[in-house]
Input
Amino acid sequence: MATRFLGLILALFMATSVLASPKIEHWTTSNGSRVYFVAAPELPMVDIQVVFDAGSARDGTLSGTALLTNAMLNEGANGLNADQIAAAFEDVGAQFGNSSQRDMSMFSLRSLTADYALKPAVKMFEAVLTQPDFPSASFERIQKQMLIGLQAEKQSPAAIASRTFYSKLYGNHPYGMMPAGNEQSVSQLTLASLKRFYQQYYVANNAVVILVGAINKPKAMQIAEQLVANLTEGEKAKSLSPVSALTKAEKIIIEHPSTQTHIVMGQPGINRHDPDYFTLYVGNHILGGSGLVSQLSNEVREKRGLSYSVYSYFRPMRELGPYQFGLQTRNNQADEALDVMQTTLKNFISAGPTAAELLAAKQNITGGFALRVDSNSKIAGYLAMIGFYGLPLDYLNTFKSKINKVTIEQIKEAYARRVQADNMITVMVGGKE
Amino acid sequence: MVIKIKQIIGLALLLPTIVMANVSEYQLDNGLKLIVKEDHRAPVVVSQVWYKVGSSYEHNGITGISHVLEHMMFKGTENLGPNEFSQIIAANGGRENAFTGRDYTAYFQTLEKDRLEVSFRLEAERMRKLVIDEAELLKEREVVAEERRMRTEDNPHALVREAFNAAAFVNSPYHHPVIGWMSDINNYEAVDLRAWYQKWYAPNNATVVIVGDVEPEAVYKLAKQYFGPLKPETTATVKPQIEVVQRGKRTIEVKAPAKLPYMMMGWKVPVVNTATELEAWEPYALEMLAGILDGGDSARFSRDLVRGDEIAASVGAGYGLFSRLADLFLVVGTPVKGKTIADLQQAVMAQIKTLQTELVSEQELKRIKAQVVANAVYERDTVFYQAMQIGMLETIGMDWQLSDAYVDNVQAVTAEQVRAVAKKYFIDKGLTVAELIPLPLDSKKPVMSVGGRHGH
Output
């Protein structure tokens, strides 16, 4: 123990700003998983993530399949039960996490790098990923918990608005369903269907392994190899069907006994490889993506005091993720707030940003670049994105210059071509007064 | 004269646990405290200004005023227009925000390391030169009212929490919510805000915490340049407001539109700040007890109540040992379908009973200690969190070095001590229980659809 702490202190004293532009190492395991690694020697810890293309976009007819499969992996593995698995991680201070969204099914492990911790933690992580037992008692319990979670959604106007928005935005596309499923689909899930899902999607060719921490490359190679060695090679998940554009605007009003109305508005936006990504990113930064200094915040909050929070963002995904706008305001001024939000968007599409606004946005984005990669966990997040979506390895290195190249004309042109203020889904959830 | 109080670096190799790298502490002539922690992992710096004021400093009628003042701190000074503070930080690539708690109000910026001066220039300006404009205040009252609607009025759990605190604390200022009661929010006047600002916003009531890729002496020089000229204030003495002795279990019900039942239980307990010297170990034993019940998926609540007996859909234990005034040990939860709040409370009480009668196992103690040791490393992955720890401790009147001692103090807890605090504090006389009774939600069917169908 003493040696470990001393090592830590020396490392701290000698450390320089090595994280300024992380050096990404990339290779493929012998059975086909793609690995992304950044050495971060300063703290005696490592973050490991394994991401499968096994999110709810792969649910098929039974929505909730991906989430429940993800949640089952640490319920029983290699003969150990959930209590034993949790204790194996926590006995050595390691943190295990799992989550599942539309594109990604993600598993994470954070551990100290000392052998007494890392060895057993990685071994347990490997068993969870590759030898899950799918105990039926756990299945029934988590299924019940998911149904309770769906009940909890019904007391949240924000959750109701989000569910309705995705459903209307995407129709029959897999993105239209919520990862948490619905009462009917979750009730119909079976252990057999989860096992099939696992066998199809939890395969080496469909996995990305991320490592960031105080280990060297040989160690990273060994861990990555170990984690996926017992996965079958399998096949990469097929591409998803493309998202169709909206053909008509629609406004859905849902009554809820809340004092505020939650408004969500939007249309299909961009995917992770979109050629307009940087142009639209900078444009939206000015319109609604920069917190208290955005145009939307200025119009809705600063000038009129209509809402505590107002935002807009692109969520780039495998296929077109949403371009989403939102705010909450007391019921009797909901129409006024929506009008201000729409007018601000329309003005932005027709007038574009001013030169001063564009300059300020670029200064903000590029001047704060170091903040994006100032911790192991943030770097791991970028690696997961780069790895999962197959973005170029120099994504972070070229980020600033791509931002700096964006012009007012490009923003205006891209918004005119891609964003239709009169063709959006608008969902309003709230009370009458 | 300005004295440099401590330079800790020399001690680093002597202390038994993971010692914070390199912390320097200074005090300016006007009373402002500056704490600089070097972290050279990335070329960034976080700058936080902490004021010793928060909702626990407020009295009835002006509850939430610390929070609305926090909002007004972005609305203009003698030399800055409304929102200009944020615009300047943004143009410098910074991220910024502020937060108000029961015991503190804090402002922060995260910047590339060579922009620290921008933070100091602006923070010094608004420390003494804020302008409370009537029209801006009227707008901001509306914004805060919307914030309260979002966080509390439309959130059944928050409604329970608020009613619960108001029942558990009679005369302690932890009685009222940080955001304030709606009636108070609607009635702040500019004179109230100006008086509150005048009283608390001064260098001698502020701690500036800097963590990042900086050189402490250079930061100190910069602090002297910008904060040095500010005049100190005669700050008011805070009355002790020691909570009256509770003389029996308190039970309340909250009825609100909701789908699921929910409950909170809270026992009166000491915190590090209020524990006597003889009982200084008790908060750490309570911290350990919280870990035994809810320190991860292997802890007793998850193992026995969620998985084993399948009584709880969710259940958690919460205890914060660093606050200004005595606080509560909380248990919150929702039963699974088919079980009642009474079933869940009974199961929780059985867990407490076990802690009062049986010693926790060495294995469990070891597990919690392993987590505490590991977390002390993990926490250092962000400069923001490191600054938070220092700022919070200083602002509740404690030494930031307690965050180092924390690991040792938890490591020293024995099974006997856990049993002792379980017996001493988990008693009906100190217990408050709140239950959410769900009222039906109105029909959620779409009542109107405008603009027809859309196709794909």
Q: What stands out?
A: Confidence is low (pLDDT under 50) at residues 1-19, 444-456 of chain B. The CA atoms of residues 74 and 86 of chain B lie 7 Å apart.
